[in-house]
Amino acid sequence: MDEIRSTGRPLERHSRYGGEVWPMNLVDRTEELSVMESMLGACGAGHGGVLWVSGAVASGKTALLRAFGARATANGALFLQATASETEKVLPLGVLGQLLLGADLPAVDAERATGLVELVAREAQRHGTPEAPPALAMNVIPELCGTLLKMAEKRPVVISVDAVQHADSQSLDCLLYLARRLDTSRILVVLAGNSGFPDDRQQLKVDLLRLSGVRHIRLRPLRRQGVADLVSTLGQDLRQGRKLVADLYRVGGGNPLLTQALIEDQRTSDAAALVPGDAFAQAVTATVYRSDTSVRHTVWGLAVLGSHGSLAELVEVLGTTQEAVQRGLCALNEAGLLDNGRFRHEAGRTAALRSMEPAHRAHLEARAAQVLHEHGAAATVVVRHLVAAEPVDAPWALRTLLDAAQRALADDEIEFALTCLRTARDSGADAGQLLAVKAELTRAGWRVNPSAAAQNLPELTAAALGGRLGARHVDELVGQLLWFGKVDEALDVVGSAEKHGGPSGPDGTKGAGLDSTRRWIACVYPGRPGSVATRHADAAATDDLARGLRQRTANLIETVLEGAEDAVVVRAEQILQSTRLDDSTLTALVVAVRSLVLADRLDTAALWCDTLLQEATERRVPMWQALLSSAKARMDLRAGRLAAAEESARVALTLVPAEGWGVAVVSPVTTSLHVNTALGRLDEAAAQLAVPIPDPAFQTTDGLLYLQARGHYYLVAGRPYAALDDFLTCGDLMTRWNLDLPALVPWRTDAAQAYLSLGDDERALNLAEEQLALAGPGRSWVHAVSLRVMASGLTPRQRLPLIDEAVEILRERGHRFELARAIADLAQTHRELGDGGRARALARKAQQLERECGVPAPRTRPAAETGSPTDERPWNAHGNRGAPVELTDGELRVATLAADGYTNRQIAEKLFITISTVEQHLTRSYRKLAVRRRADLAARLSSVSVPCGGEEDVHGGVCGRLRAV
């Protein structure tokens, strides 16, 4: 048998054979087409033959047969074609039946041929075999083949059988019968099949090799020039270049089907580089299913094992022989899907995996996990198969899953850790093992969203109360219960742990670890009954034993409450410098950063917070990022960076939704409430008040901050009594909790502002003086704010030195927004003292600082810069009792706009003053007009006509005046 191999020379773009144009997508097949053309000519001259076309899967055999069939038909030959199928392999004479259907036989001959085929099928069925009895076959085959030989007497007959490796044995017997009689007939038999027939088809090759006139064409993969020609034919709209051709050749391996699919993907993709897509995946699936069963299982086993498997491991996974696996690998290499036994591209492996039935893949994954474990592969390798496998009921499997989950958490691969733990949970572990798995699953899920992980808390709590939970998991459970405000349950768990023999302290003392836990709960929830006694009773005892992180953090909190700023800084930085960020240390690190803020070390706190937040972001842990973003928001708020504070609070609630925050949701909500109130955005602030806050949050220090923020909202919204109630509630709680710490909430100063709004200057002054005394001799921001508030109730001459000192302190401490408000007050004071030039300069400085803090700038020049001498002329009106009420022009303008529904921010923009000045004008207006809220202003003001005098009214008109009614 002569064998012709493809030379790789490309087909000319307009090549013709016998005057006819061949299909232009048959690139790199010049020699093959030439051989087929010559054999077709010999057949027409009375010399038939057999042409065997072999090649790898999807190498273009079918396309070549179709093109040749069209050419044969055009030359007047009868073209009979059949395609064998693996599913019809047991159908007797199935392929020959397909050929006869297209023969256009006379009715009598067609009826006879059909009867013979059906006879063979019936006999095979009766004997329960895929073949008819030999005696019957010896009678039927000559008669059926004689029909074809008789047809060739009239015109040339070309018989084409594709996928001949799947043909039934009796159809192959017929083809061999014909092949032996073709020397003097006009029949050309063209057989196409995959390279390397299955073992049960070796006889066909042997019998063919003994015949003369049989030729063999072996299709090779496309060469680079063939790929370039294919791009020219199919991808004319693509930018051709060496890189594209090289990439197509590298990924497609010269396989025409895969290469065409890659070209299609490239045409529909926006990516500059070659990216295999859906078309490539479909082509890979087609290649897999058009392969022999043995080859198909080989590619699936290789896809499951990936790059970690060896040949020996692949043989074990498939449960076959090394020879069968090597034959499959050779076929896949030749097909271009593999290169040296490995997938050319990960997309090919992915597509092969997806081509499998889920149940079969799960079985292979389980088998791969077993084999790799027995061969000593790393847990991280084995577990990749366990998570995709059917349940593996073996002790080593559970250990491997738990070990891999721990490693994944250490490497911050949270989703993979959760996948491992979910697989372990569903693996059929016993009750004790299942509890440990659920505890680990809760801890890992906490990094993403505590609300989703909290579903296991009831079961874990019950186990802890029954003494069935390990010490480490008990400790974690207490923190998780506290997160959601379940303090009673947390204390019950601690009590149960003490009863069953809880963890030892750092010195080995039994129960000392639980004592520190109780103290920690008292620090986190100072509003709980008995928290004050627990906090102080254990404080002295743990000073010398303060080696555990939780104890050191509790000591830090106590130091903060004592007001010892220098000691706070030392202890906070000790924690920050010696502690690595992880699940068990996050809370302590956040407390340390917040402690620096309370100690007025804003720059140091900012440095540590930014460092920790960057690490949390790089490690991609949402809960860590959220908590640190919330801490950063509070710090930015204290420093006066309002826009930054608002953004950090928004990010915190975006990373983890509100329901996942537990009681801690009060922190970012409080910051947003503060910011929106400071910016005069009362509607947005009211929206924050609508966010549900769990009741236990009001037993924490964050709850105090929320009451303070709400009080300031009420104050700006014209509800001074509601504001006063919140401020006094803060004071009552802080006193009862024994943590009256001005640096946390200066409630006396806040209440003084409310009293000023209500016209009770005496009480306001007393509270401000009391706050100054408690703040101590230091130059803290509380000292400065108290000075500013105290000054509000004094005459301009008395105010001036107090506000000057407040400005100096705030500038030194870096509280920019409070500094802007103090400078605005100073500008107002100088204006009232008649120093217009100084007032205007200070007003411009205050507005500049507000813009730096995130307050939008006025759209036009402020009236204060126009040099108008009539800014603050007093206006007399009569109150309800006939007593004269005096409002300055500034107070009148602000009150009128507020009565018309303008927000503080809109008023500030319209009048070109700061929001702080608006708040002060409104406070004085409420007091003078004896109103309690914004809605009452309209009822106390009415318009009357007066001579214009050349002065504009508050709306830019010419004749408006207002008086109280």
Tell me the layout of helices and strands.
Elements: E1 2-5, E2 16-17, E3 20-21, H1 30-44, E4 49-55, H2 61-74, E5 78-83, H3 94-101, H4 107-127, H5 134-152, E6 157-162, H6 169-179, E7 187-194, H7 202-209, E8 214-219, H8 224-234, H9 242-252, H10 256-268, H11 278-289, H12 293-305, H13 311-318, H14 322-334, E9 338-339, E10 342-343, H15 346-354, H16 358-374, H17 379-386, H18 395-410, H19 414-425, H20 431-446, H21 450-453, H22 457-465, H23 471-483, H24 487-499, H25 512-524, H26 531-543, H27 549-562, H28 565-578, H29 586-598, H30 602-618, H31 622-639, H32 642-655, H33 666-678, H34 682-689, H35 701-716, H36 720-736, H37 747-757, H38 761-775, H39 781-792, H40 796-813, H41 816-832, H42 836-853, E11 874-878, E12 884-888, H43 889-899, H44 904-911, H45 915-929, H46 937-940, E13 941-945, E14 960-964
Parallel strand pairs: 1-8, 4-7, 4-8, 5-6, 6-7
Antiparallel strand pairs: 2-3, 9-10, 11-12, 13-14
Helix pairs in contact: 3-4, 4-5, 5-6, 8-9, 8-10, 9-10, 10-11, 11-15, 12-13, 12-14, 12-15, 12-16, 13-16, 16-17, 17-18, 18-19, 19-20, 20-22, 22-23, 23-24, 24-25, 25-26, 25-27, 26-27, 27-28, 27-29, 28-29, 29-30, 29-31, 30-31, 31-32, 31-33, 32-33, 33-34, 33-35, 35-36, 35-37, 36-37, 37-38, 37-39, ...
